[in-house]
Structure formats: C-alpha cells, structure tokens
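The following block was generated as part of the benchmark described in Methods. Ligand: FE2/S2 (inorganic) cluster.
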Amino acid sequence: MSGPSAGRPPFPVGWFVVARFDGLPDGALVPLAAFGQDLVVGRTASGRALVTHSVCPHLGADLAAGGRIDDYEVVCPLHGWCFSHSGACTSAAEGPIPETTRLRVWPTELVDGIVWAFNGRDGEQPDQPPPALSLPGDLVGTRRPGHPEDALTGMLTSVGVVDGVPADEAPDAWEGSTADGRRATVYGPGTLVVRPGQDTSVDVVVHVTPVDGFEVEVRTSGEALPTESVGGIESFSRWYRRFDRSTTLGRRPARTGRSGRAGR
Ligand code: FES
C-alpha cells in the first residue's frame, strides 16, 4: 500500500473535532467529510449536536440536501423518513417502520462550543469523553496532506520536541518537552496543546481530523504550525499505535464521494 497512511489504518480510533457549534445553522444538516466518509453534522435550537452518515438508509438520499434535525429526530428530505438520534427509524411516511433500517450515527459531544465526533467501530461507544479543551477564535480549518500522526509529528518537531512520555494526569495523553523547557501535550489521536516559542505566553490548541486518508483538516486557535514531518519522534510514534485499532471503516485510504467530487 502506498500513500500517506502506508502501513497504518488511515483513520485512528478516538475523538476528533469536526465543527464549531455556533458555526452551524439551527435545524439544518451540513455536509462534513471525515474518517473517509461523507457525513453531516447538525445542531438543534436547544443546544444538541449530532454527526451522522449523509446517506439515508431508505433509498440513499443525501441528508445534506435539505435534511433537518430537531431534538428528537433527523428527517430525510426525499420521502420524510425520520430517524432518532441513535439511528433507529421512527417514521417511514405512510408505511410500517422497518425495524432493521438504521441511520449510522457517530457518538457526538459538545464541549465548550466545539463539536467532537468519536471515530470507532460501527456502533462502538467511547469509554471516555473528549478532552475538555476549548478553542478560541474562528476555528477555520485548512486541509493538509497526510495522516494525523504525521501532522502532529510535524508540529511537535517544528517547536523543538524530540522526546516525551505518556502523561500521568490524563488518559490517552502524551507529553513532550523541548530543550528550553516548554511542554507540548497531545490528547487522543488528534489534539495538540503547545507553547510555540519562548517569546510567547499563550498556548496554541490544534485539532487534526482525518478527512479521507489522504488529507487532514487542521484547526488551530493561533498561529499555524508546519505539519510536514521533519524526522520522527520514536516515543510518540510508539504511543500513537494505541489508536490504530482496526475498524470496520477499512484499513485503506479512500476518497469520499462528496469530497472527492469537490476537491479533485
Ligand atoms: S431516501 Fe430518505 S426517506 Fe427515502
């Protein structure tokens, strides 16, 4: 296998940032490309968020093309079938409800105005919540080539981190340090908190989300850090393997339909 994910599952298992809540319109389903899937993300007026597959399990309509969400259901725009936030079909227009028809939903959490989605096996529930890290600013994402591990490695090495250890105080966190005593902490498979230079007093929070196995979306609260990997960090790479659990999403990179059409 070749490409940026060579030798690794392209979509690590864990929590990833997918949107800022106040950037979503009430009740609408917005297209989202992540984890090699065409997804939608929606918010309700009362403050709930949900990430689902974009394809209606009835006859395949794109839920981003006019689908709606409220506190109880997701409604398909084509024939009006409804699905609960857990994915069960709750209404099939005039017909009987098909009990085995489900909309795939991703475990979704809203933390300090940030929408997180858990990428795991189909139906897998996370055993811990996403890290409680806010991200001030506009949360504008930029696409970069590569795997999340490589993007994180690139940013760590760019600020001078050469080694580190699993963090004591937080599960699934890794703590690196620079020669001048600055710390850089990676939370889960896609989040980095770092002080980029000695002359700065503010930490930068960076979220890296896999798009399709070829690109990642990088969202940062401050200055953009280089994601090109210049050398590796062996202890970080070893630690990161914990997120490589095989998933039903497949081990091969795959461009998604919508993102593939839009970008290439
Ligand atoms: S395709 Fe969604 S309800 Fe028919």
